[in-house]
Amino acid sequence: MSLESDIDDLWQRYQTDLDAESADEADYALLGEFLDALEAGEVRAAEKRGGEWEANAWVKQGILLNFGLRDIQAFEYGDVAYHDVLPLRNTDDLPARGTRNTPDGTVIRRGAHIGSNAILMSPAFVNIGAHVGDGTLVDSCDTVGSCAQIGENVKLGANTLIGGVLEPVEGAPVVVEDDVSLGAGCRVTSGFVVGEGSIVGENTLLTPRIPVYDLVEEEVLYGELPPNRRAFTRFVESSIGDHDLFEGGAYKPAVVATHVEEDTLEATQREEALRE
Known about the structure:
Elements: H1 3-14, H2 25-40, E1 46-49, E2 52-55, H3 57-68, E3 73-77, E4 80-84, E5 100-101, E6 107-108, E7 113-114, E8 119-120, E9 125-126, E10 131-132, E11 137-138, E12 143-144, E13 149-150, E14 155-156, E15 161-162, E16 175-176, E17 181-182, E18 187-188, E19 193-194, E20 199-200, E21 205-206, E22 212-214, E23 219-221, E24 224-225, E25 229-237, E26 251-259, H4 262-275
Parallel strand pairs: 5-8, 6-9, 7-10, 8-11, 9-12, 10-13, 11-14, 12-15, 13-16, 14-17, 15-18, 16-19, 17-20, 18-21, 19-24, 20-25, 22-26
Antiparallel strand pairs: 1-2, 3-4, 22-23, 25-26
Helix pairs in contact: 1-2, 1-3
């Protein structure tokens, strides 16, 4: 049987009568094998099919099984004691692949995939089920949420929040495709997809509830930023703009997307050269 079918069988049992007390060694061995496959990048919480990102529901079910069938235990992280159902990810495999995680606060949870030649600056947090691609920078104070899919050669600026979408299991997680640069303080939530090669200005909120005004194709989008865009926040007049309580008018955020400018690309290339 495949790992997928084994997890599916375990999930069906969990929905009926399986719990932490009745699970046996074989069940926990399967859960461990599943986490190893996540960390190796052999399975992913979402994949691109036919040009669209789709969740792998069975992978999310495997993560939920690890939460539901394990008891809370005491663990240690340096001098800090913490309590969780899983230990943190073993990072002994990172140096051989050219990946480094700086000390004093870089936390990688069990079940997270970290690619080769990546950099994780402290204090950063990468949650279970997240997939961080080769050559990607996760900067200081960044959070990469559960099941988030981060591509190759991505730059997550300092204090960036990548949201997690674990439930519902059918829901696609946040996706940041290859060669994207997110400025400091950006937030990407609720299954939003950032198209490859895009450059996003500082403190931009990307969420399906905020419209993206794509000036390249002259259309309004929700939940996605097309590839190769330069995006930034602007404020547009709200539907309650003329309300008496809002002196001078009320406004709401919007994201404006234009072509990636040549000088912006040059600045990004200079930054990559400095990293190397």
